[in-house]
Task: inverse folding
């Protein structure tokens, strides 16, 4: 694994935990953790349970005792590491967003495709797909229980940058992170929406905003946010604080019309300034037969409206039944799961796919499509919100 | 009063009820009801408690025993009636949207302004302003409890057209209604957002859609929707089924604001196809100090987030305390009000303003600003979502 | 009508409003309002729309132009007025609780029964039966959608006495009110539970408590509560502040039921000290096939769990569809009703029953059964919670 | 560790995970797992990560490489194992309920007390104390933010026995489990209520019920419930399906009165027949200054009402801030935890207490107090609900 901050911690937990609750074809071994700071990486490896450390990720690729590279470092490093790993015959799990540009993502996808032909697989870490409630949502849409979709309503609301004195971290530096709320959290909404609806976004019209244009350099960093010094020097925020856009989705089948055989229309909002909303990754779908609504702040439930019922209403399905996706291997009914379980499920799906010789999802190609939407959003925002095809 | 369908019923109730719960300077008398169908208007007058009927609204204007005209007929009739009434010295309460075009609305506003100088007042029926929870929201924003606003999130979600066989009514005929979900319900969101934030929308980028392009002529009409025959003739739907747009609001004060032009950014969605959402008129505001959220489907409460609190969280204020706006004249704490109470409060505010010789709000000028936003939304939607200044 | 405080206001509104929204066989006339204070009753009559006043309720009974007496005065006056009215051939609507003792209630019920044989009808004002959501609940239970009932969970939580300095009103004087939270609000829970389940409470075990034993005499009275002087004289609270009890319900049919006596078991709680709960009249029923939950603080919805559904969950039915009980005569879908609508529905049901020559429900006999439960609760609380048969 | 079913799995996860997220004074080692079935225990040990197995728990006590015994076997085995372990100088973590009788619990408590004097500690597994939201609740009560408590409202609602054909497991056999819903889930409510309020239950009046008196022997067992054969033989259910009771709590200080210087009154309900409620462990407290409400079905939040606020309302605190108890070592704000995290926190607290030479909580003495309440509930239910002192 490369990287050992927030994502490194949760990925390590997933690798350790997956075989304890799921029957896996392979027993994952936490062989080596890579990071540039020798002292830091050693502390992390001890804490997270890795057997050895490297200070250069290239060493991971050279080692014979490593079959898979898990990339948890910032977005500007993804392309180089992933391409090198795949070309060296290592499977790859890469955190999202796949890259910081469409060009990089296209290169990665091309390499991933040819690697897959050699049985070397790659996957991008859009873990919300593995939240049980969203996995159930996907199944319900696939089963036709919503009918033809008309509306997609996707919000990803956080508030950890609402304080104008929160410090300037790498997430606010465009050269490191690619974009701000758009790529960090909006990318999750885009992937989830495209995956669950089974159709791609074909065009967008966008507005982006940076509310706080300078922030303290340094400062106490707590969680994602924290508080910087108010008197010290400040540096520029080079990414968006919020991104909002309208979208059209393609129909599942080809055809001319936008509606009866076209796809739904969508509204997206990603922000880290929605004071009071902590991790409100919300998705609502309205179809001709039913509707679904999800909010990660109540992550163990899914609301479903079935128009066929007399006395219809949104029902809050507590997604903890053994029959629901992913859930049967954990606790009894009603005993909820947490944020990290999605990562454990990701490991399970990845290991099973590799073992079966099948392409795991989301592939780099799926992630490239997300990257194209991100690029279209930025292009529209720069062009007076004009419609931008994806 | 002109018109006696849904709006006529609720306005009549408000005129009858206001003096029973509020101390008014005048006792309203329900003098005459106008409608083209002689039999229908007589039945309605008996039912709603009007003393006499007219089959031509012009007669109301001629009568000396009438001081105020309440216009509840479709939007294409508003301008002619309102102008005639104001010029004849009658006060006017006009349902929203004010008119079917900006040009009409401008003419009405000009007439209203000069009438106001003569002590003849007019008001437009954006009644959501009188919902106690939204009146409280306004007061909290005015009191600075949210700080500087960053996000406006406005949805008006209904589902009564979701059935593709619901009949083709006047609300789906652009020549009668002006627009579809945009003017019918989106207008409420626009007015509420501008009023509560105290700032105007300065530009929009929009997408509009008509999902069902033809509908049965005739059919059983129940509530707003109902079900038409599936075999009979169909006619074209000439209005939007859904309208979604991004927006910028002007700042309240000039100067070097933190955001690019000082005000919040907004996302709006109006649709009658959000299956399962019955009358979800929702508004959320995020500021630097606090946030507010409202949903008309739980209309007696307002959610407020105060960032200053240790252990902060959105709190559900049940807006039924005697100290809250409008509420003290009704029932004890916790005994909720319904949809029609906003109309009763509207009567109270209107009668009090007339008595005091003050311009009631929302004025025709306020309603004209809404009309301009509606026009900008339509223009943007027709121009590939390009940014359209208001 | 006798009495013109809170209940007088809402009853008057109901009498005025019912014919405006419902087709009634008779047009109700608000003939005379009775109250001991001549000035007060005249002001109330003008405000509420009554044609004349009386300072002695006995005059109402003597007048030939009065067909029905609506009793809204405190509980200690009910028996005398109701009996006199019924014997004089006037129909009676009597506020709850029916009386301040079982003995009084039995006498009233006997008189009511013989009056009914002469076509003179009486009804007790348990208006929660007319809340659309609870009326729907009743229909769903009757239709067997919950199966055999196992649990009843009834709470009536208010907080207007939580302030130890709220003034000592007649509601805290046992000689006037009969009991405290038990009779005032617990009675509603008992009636609703017995009515919806279709079975009677057969025994109880209870605990009652008076948290604040003395309160200020006088003081500002606002809503139900308010604030008294803290320095002035205090008087004793002679009623319960809270009453909690367990209960058994009789089965609907005789036979070898699955439970020990065939019906569900219940938990009841009535209090005016549940800080933050304003009018939380809650009822939850669990059966073998489904469950229902209601909270008056969200009065336009009903939660229903149908175990037969794959992916089951409690669904929030917004009870504003034209097909739902009482609702079709009001507003379109999603436009909620308020507290007072139950009283309007009560008038509709009462007038229709009288016109049809049928006994309206709840009858005095139904109310007597509630009174017996109240008495059993008090008896058990006084006997170390020992089980008390009803 | 002794036992390896549901509780064994979650305890193993906690032992493995605690050192990965918390700085512990000792690194826990999963030395040996004991179970009677040699094959079964080996499979479990491999799955859960234990180094060795034993088929007799006595061997664990004899081994020198074991310092602590974690007892996850059924309640009828607790006393013997715990006493032997403590006398042998092993620390003990014992699942709840502590024992199947007060006599056993008293014996265990006596042994635990004398062991503690020798630095050998014991703890009972009431893990809900470690749910972050309830830990926050405890802190808020301790900080006086609720004022003097008046009401406790505790429900523990499940539905996995609602199906009359769910199989007859050891949990329905009184000789194994001690009691049914009362000891299994009601015990959690009792411990949580006593712990958070800081006062003990002094008396109860109870009603218990067994709705389904015979169940299939064998059958498919899924989660906690499942479905047995409908045609095969049935055996008697010897425990309660539901237990409901009223209670009084002692004041925190001595004194004569029940109220102003006494403790709150409480209503408790434990059932496995509340159809639709999956794991609704709910607790609500009403005080003179504030109220708190919790529901495990939305486990990452706590509702708090602060009467001091203008525009007060219950606020939903999302308990994922780094400042909240237990949370800082996990994920960023808004990224919720699951059921098992309470067990990890339990390990952390236990290891820290042992290291510090302090008695961990809840002690066996705390658990004995719970046991006494359970016994009083059973005694009252058998004596016509008569008040039973604890």
Result:
């Amino acid at each position: 694994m490369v990287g050992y901050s927030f994502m490194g911690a949760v990925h390590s937990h997933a690798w350790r935990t997956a075989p304890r609750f799921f029957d896996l074809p392979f027993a994952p071994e936490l062989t080596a953790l890579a990071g540039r700071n020798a002292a830091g990486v050693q502390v992390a490896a001890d804490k997270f349970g890795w057997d050895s450390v490297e200070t250069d990720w290239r060493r991971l690729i050279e080692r014979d005792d490593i079959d898979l590279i898990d990339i948890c470092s910032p977005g500007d490093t993804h392309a180089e590491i992933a391409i090198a790993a795949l070309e060296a015959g290592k499977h790859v799990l890469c955190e999202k967003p796949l890259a910081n540009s469409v060009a990089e993502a296209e290169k990665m996808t091309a390499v991933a495709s040819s690697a897959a032909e050699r049985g070397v697989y790659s996957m991008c870490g859009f873990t919300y797909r593995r939240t049980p409630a969203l996995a159930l949502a996907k199944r319900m849409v696939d089963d036709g229980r919503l009918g033809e979709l008309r509306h997609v309503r996707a919000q990803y609301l956080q508030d950890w940058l609402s304080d104008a004195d929160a410090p300037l971290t790498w997430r606010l530096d465009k050269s490191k992170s690619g974009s701000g709320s758009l790529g960090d959290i909006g990318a999750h909404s885009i992937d989830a929406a495209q995956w669950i609806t089974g159709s791609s976004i074909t065009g967008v019209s966008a507005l982006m905003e940076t509310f706080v244009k300078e922030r303290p350099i340094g400062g106490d960093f707590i969680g994602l946010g924290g508080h910087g010094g108010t008197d010290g020097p400040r540096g520029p925020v080079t990414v968006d604080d919020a991104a909002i856009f309208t979208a059209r989705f393609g129909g599942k089948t080809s055809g001319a019309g936008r509606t009866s055989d076209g796809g739904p229309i969508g509204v997206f909002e990603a922000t880290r300034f929605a004071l009071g909303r902590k991790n409100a990754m919300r998705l609502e779908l309205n179809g001709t037969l039913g509707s679904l609504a999800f909010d990660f702040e109540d992550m163990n439930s899914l609301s479903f409206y079935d128009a066929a019922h007399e006395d219809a209403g949104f029902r809050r399905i507590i997604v903890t039944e053994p029959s629901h996706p992913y859930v049967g291997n954990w606790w009894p009914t009603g005993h909820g799961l947490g944020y990290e379980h999605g990562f454990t499920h990701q490991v399970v799906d990845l290991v099973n796919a590799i073992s079966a010789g099948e392409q795991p999802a989301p592939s780099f190609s799926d992630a490239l499509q997300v990257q194209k939407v991100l690029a279209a959003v930025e292009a529209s925002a720069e062009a007076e919100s004009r419609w931008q095809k994806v």
Summary: Chain B touches chain D through 17 residues (CB under 8 Å). Chain B has two domains: 6-125, 128-337. Residues 128-337 of chain B form a domain with the Dihydrodipicolinate Reductase; domain 2 fold (CATH 3.30.360.10). The two ends of chain B are 33 Å apart (CA to CA).
